[in-house]
Design a protein that fits this description.
single chain, about 170 residues, alpha/beta, Rossmann fold, 5-stranded parallel sheet, about 40% helix, binds flavin mononucleotide, FMN binding, Flavodoxin/NO_synth
Length: about 170
Amino acid sequence: MSDKILIAYGTRYGATTEAAATIQQILEKEFKLNVEVYTIKKGKKLPELEDFPHIIIGSGIKEGKWVKEAEEFLKNNDFGNRKVAVFISSGFAGEEDLYDYAREHFLDKVIEESGVEVIEKEAFGGRVPMLYIPQIHFYRILRRLPRFQLDNRNWERIEQFARKVGKKFTEED
Ligand SMILES: Cc1cc2nc3c(=O)[nH]c(=O)nc-3n(C[C@H](O)[C@H](O)[C@H](O)COP(=O)(O)O)c2cc1C
């Protein structure tokens, strides 16, 4: 096995891509790790785990759900003794009063269902692109979504997550 790290994530609107890029930068610059970033998409071949001793899996959240293919990637793989870390990009998680809810329902629950033992997990805030703001307002009128800032990504939390993961990936077992 090589020493490469895989960051495999699902996104609908691009916010998770930016979180993944920030994590990649920290792992490369501060921990001198070799990182490959992979977007999981419907119809696209999934990455081979063979080359990667450590894996980070992420997803954006829409209507309480992961990107389906990213959730399947987490749930359907046998990661063996690889170190696995998980994150989500979620509008609720960026709000103090909704953070615990987001963590419990969108992060802990999915990880528990997967049966994967993770070394680190975190829920970051998210960003709703301009084009989808009317949709958010519509959902609010239907009371399907509580109020959250349209860009509440907490970069500090993303960076802290990357550093914790970097430490755990590089420490001797
Ligand atoms: C139509 C729509 C529905 C959303 N539903 C939720 C939700 O149920 N819970 C939540 O935490 N965030 C929700 N969000 C906010 C997203 O989690 C946020 O935009 C996130 O950053 C999306 O990640 P992505 O850009 O990688 O797809 C929603 C956003 C949109 C546009």
